[in-house]
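Practice problem 4.
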């Protein structure tokens, strides 16, 4: 059962990212402030939900949230600053776009770079604990999946319409056959046998 809030004195924004472990594409992050009475029986960590459930929840969250924002950092920036910093930057960009100022950020994970002077609290597996983080995980995941569907049209042989840039067998085989494209994260050691492709 997800907790509605961590505390009830400050406005909370849940933050989460999607695509951190992918071979290709951007990392996305979302920040979500939910109303006090928000509840949906399906709401959970996006990784625990089917694609159909995530797609059903996305418009509900976007309609009923007090405020939400989604941001992305592309693969070139990931290669420049590293994936962890890129994940934090995407969260910062999302929080910056919120139309309501949060008093506390609930972060999924065990680390975070503070954003301005807004206090934050980190939670390992927070997307399975707090409704706002779960909502953020769903928005980050669905927005990123939608983006990878578009990139798939330009490079269909990598199978991004299904693997969304993760290192599946189909994706790895396509890298061996076609090499890396402009959307791959060159700083990732994709496979020992593929070092010559960098």
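Answer key:
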């Amino acid at each position: 059962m997800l907790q509605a809030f961590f505390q009830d004195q400050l406005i909370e924004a849940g933050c989460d990212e999607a695509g951190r472990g992918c071979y290709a594409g951007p990392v996305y992050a979302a920040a979500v402030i939910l109303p006090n009475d928000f509840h949906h029986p399906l709401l959970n960590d996006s990784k625990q939900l089917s694609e159909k459930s995530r797609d059903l929840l996305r418009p509900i969250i976007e309609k009923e949230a007090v405020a939400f924002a989604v941001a992305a950092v592309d693969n070139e920036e990931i290669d420049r600053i590293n994936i962890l910093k890129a994940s934090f930057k995407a969260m910062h960009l999302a929080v910056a776009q919120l139309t309501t100022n949060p008093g506390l950020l609930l972060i999924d994970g065990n680390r975070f770079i503070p954003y301005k002077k807004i206090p934050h609290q980190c939670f390992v597996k927070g997307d399975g604990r707090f409704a706002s983080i779960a909502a953020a995980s769903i928005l980050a995941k669905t927005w990123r999946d939608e983006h990878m569907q578009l990139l798939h049209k330009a490079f269909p042989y990598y199978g991004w319409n299904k693997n969304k840039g993760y290192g599946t067998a189909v994706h790895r085989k396509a890298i061996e056959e076609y090499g890396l494209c402009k959307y791959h994260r060159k700083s990732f050691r994709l496979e020992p046998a593929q070092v010559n492709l960098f």
